[in-house]
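Predict structure. Chain length: 215.
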Amino acid sequence: MAEVEGVIKYQLDHRGGPPPRARELSVLNAWRTVLFRLRLIGQDPARYGGLGFGNVSIKLDQFGKPTPPFIVSGTQTGSQAELDENGYCLVSYCDPARNYVVAQGPVKPSSEALTHAAVYAADTAIHCVLHVHSPDIWQAAHTLGLPATGPEVRYGTPAMAEAVAHLVTTMGPSDGGVFAMEGHEDGVVAFGVDPSVAGHKLIGLLVRAMEVRQT
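Prediction complete.
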C-alpha cells in the first residue's frame, strides 16, 4: 500500500493561540509563494492522493536550547496560493527520540516538523528549511550527486529525523545545502542561513535537474 502523504505521525501537544510573529516571516512567506507558483508546494488531485505537500520554516534565535524553537507552515495548507500569519505556528519543543512535538498557534504544524527540527539541531548556523516536492530534482538526484536519506526511511518519523541529522552533519557546516529523501516520493529539502540562501540553492538545483532531463 502506498504511503499516505502529509499525515502527522508524531505525538503532538498543540495549543491554539495567536499566530507567531517574527521579523523574518515576511521573507519566508514570500519564498513560500514562489515555491507554490513553481508547484514545489501545493495540492493537486493527481499527486499524492490529493493531499497538500511542502512546508517551510524559520528558526528563532534562543541560545542554550538543545531543540531551538521555529516557526513552520501548518499541516495541509498546500492548497493556499498565499499564506498569511494564520497559516503558521510556533514549534517550541521537539523530541525526535520520543516522536513528540509541542506547538502553539492557529494551525497544527507540518507533518515534517521533526525533519525541520533535525536540520536546525544538526547545524546551528541554519535558520531556514524548505521542504518541497520536485519530481525533476528527485529523479535526477543520483546524476546530480545529491546527498539523500535512504529508501527505507519514511517521512515524519524518528528514523527520518535521525537520518536527516546524520546527513546534515556529514555535509558539514556551510551556508546551506540541498538533499533528497529517497523514501519520500519527490521529497527534497533545502536549508540555509536565511530563506534567500535556501531558496536560491533550491532553484539553482532545479535548473540543473531540468538540464539533466533535456540531455
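Summary: The chain has a mean pLDDT of 91.
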